[in-house]
Each structure stands twice: as C-alpha cells, then as structure tokens.
C-alpha cells in the first residue's frame, strides 16, 4: 500500500477493505470475457453506502477511474479494469435489508447473489421471478446494471420490471433515493430507469427494492427435437397459443454435444439438429391435455420429431441442464460470443438471413447457437479452431460481427440483448442507436458523472 492516493483513501475510510495483491488484482479486474489483461490500481470492498460515497468522492478528487464490480459474470467487458482503475467490488454488501409484506417488496444490498434473493423471497411465500443459469454467482447489482433478462422474460419481463426503488451514489458522489417503492409516481423524470442498464457508467447502486410476485404455478418441462431452424417460430406459435408458457428456449446439436461432454445425460437415442426446452403451467387435467395437444399438433405438422415431458422435479432439472449448462460447458474453449435481439415478429426473417451469414463467415468452424427464442434473443458462440492464435480468431470474428450488426440494423434489432455493451460491443453501438441518441447519452453522463470517473470507456467513448 505505497501509492499515496490509496493512503489518502485509507484515511478517509479507515475501515475500508483494500486489496492490492497481484492475484486479487487479476481476479477482480476482469469478467468472463478474458480478452483483456487486468491492471487495476487496487480493489475496494466497501461494507456500507457511506464507504461507497467516500470512495467516489475520493476518486473525483484524485482523478481515479472507478469500475463497479458485482459477480463479474458479464460477457461484454463491462467489468474489466485494465488501465489503473479502482475496482469497486460490492460483494461485502450482500445482505437482505428488509421485507414489506403489504407492499410485497424485498430490499437488498447490491452484492447479494440472485439465488439468495430467490431463497429470501421464497421464505416469505413469494417469488422474485427474474432468473438465469448464473443465478448462483451473478449479483443483483450487476443484473440492474445490465437490465438482465434470462430464461423467463417471456412470462415476467426483464430486471427493469421488478425494480421498485434504487439508492444510488452518482459519479459526482451524490446519493439519490429513486422512486422509494411507489407503484404510481408521476413527479417528473423516473431516474430509476435511467440507472437500470447503465453499466456502472452513471453511478453505483447501493440498495435496491425489488417487487415480488406470487409463487409460480406447478410447471412441467418438455424437451422437443426439431428438424430445422425454420420450425422454431412455428412451434413457438403453437405452444404459446395453447399453453401458459413460463419459458421457451432453444439450442442446437452442437450445444448439446458440448453439454454432454460436460457430463449431462443424453435425452434421445437418435441425433437431431435443433431442440427446444419449454416450461409451462400444469397441475390440472385441462393444462396437461393442452400440452399433449400442442405436442401432437406439432408432430402432425412435421415441426417436431421427438419429445419428452418431465414427470418429476428431478427430471425437469435434468432437462433444464441441457440448456443452462451450455455456457459453462463452452467456457474452457474461450468462445467469441454474440448476444443479439430482434422483435419476435422479425425473428423468422432474421433467423434465415443470420444462419446464411454465419455459415458463410465461419466455414468449418464450430458455431453453437442457443437463446430465448420467445423474446427474440439469440446467443451465437464461436469456438476457436484448435491452434488459431486468439488475436487472429477475434479479428476474424469481428469481421463477421460487422455483417451481423448490419443485418440487425436492417431488422430493427439490437447488438446487445442482455449482456450490455461494455468494451466488446462498443464499435457496433451506432448500428443499434442513432448518433442523436448517443449524443444524449454522453450529455446525461456529463451531468451525473461530470469528471468521467465512472467506468470510463464502456458503452461509448467520452
């Protein structure tokens, strides 16, 4: 702890935990992208909103950039600290602050992991319905920073839909108490929604009040084998018309291959090119009959080749593992990832164009597709060929992403559905947002972060 700036921070916040060991700097200075070499100044682990405010005010005085950090499960480089920034890790601020039975809200600190939020809501007979495979490691603060979606957007929407209030330390060091859990509040601009999805570029969430929902109904999970990409949207339409869908996810045979190698159980004796995991409300004869009718209709139309339906919670978890285990099974390959979205109505045309584009751009390369087809979100993972240098591989992928981004612009889509822009997608922002929009974003940042210390270089350049 020889840096004089850090000594001054220690004097301002004497109880603050600061880390400077090389191993800690590497661990906290990167996210799941693994494309940048971490090089932070230090890692601060505050235990209170007061300490966060002291850190931000110190950073303004010392002209030190701050990178807010949650579970660092992001895939866009949004939590990377590679240029001497102070990493502001919220992992010690991980408590449930309070529960209000009348308002049905749960107030939490930002470092609490999503799974702990689920458990806390369940203890009160309610549910926090936002969910994703990384629930055991991602934090609520990170979810808010990227407006995370996940596997149940089709039923419950994104994180934004469930934020009743936020306490935030802005880039200037001011504390804002936004919305305070009100259901109706027509008193000017709703700054709460400005902070949601801002990727730590405007301020730091220090407390969040979450709306809770009724527990979900009993559900069953069905795994379907499909003959083609083109059948996906037709199967979705058939199931959505007949069932109360909780989730509708797809993946390819290459995704299944990697998950099976990673230890999952093979679902069918035969090989098929495409798969869907559908979770739907059950618990009555009418609902079960509707599920069977949807399946039989799709089989008769040649849209589904095979299927299995869960008969227990354990079997449902087994089927979900085939979808939720994809990202973990690919991690060791360090794939290049695209996370894109279009309107659901535009999905058939976009799928057709994108499939052809990917086949031309990556001949002979292992490309793994999966996604939340019911809300128009595709994940495209490109596995680097064996022996190819990482910089050469990334350069090739970026050429294809240029074409993909242009296709998204033609279909009115977004280069980032749920992982944020960060560093990875910054070159493609103008294909999703207009120059006028980006100029307004820069102006907003100057107001809330006048010295430009909050996660600089992410989303757009100042």
From TrEMBL:
Domain FAD-binding PCMH-type, first and last residues per copy: 36-215
Domain of life: Bacteria
Gene3D superfamilies: 3.30.465.10, 3.30.70.2190, 3.30.70.2740, Uridine Diphospho-n-acetylenolpyruvylglucosamine Reductase, domain 2, Vanillyl-alcohol Oxidase, Chain A, domain 4
Transmembrane spans: none
Cofactor requirements of the protein: FAD
Keywords, alphabetical: FAD, Flavoprotein, Oxidoreductase
Keyword Coiled coil: no
The family this protein is said to belong to: Belongs to the FAD-binding oxidoreductase/transferase type 4 family.
Name this polypeptide is given: FAD-binding oxidoreductase
Organism: Lysobacter korlensis
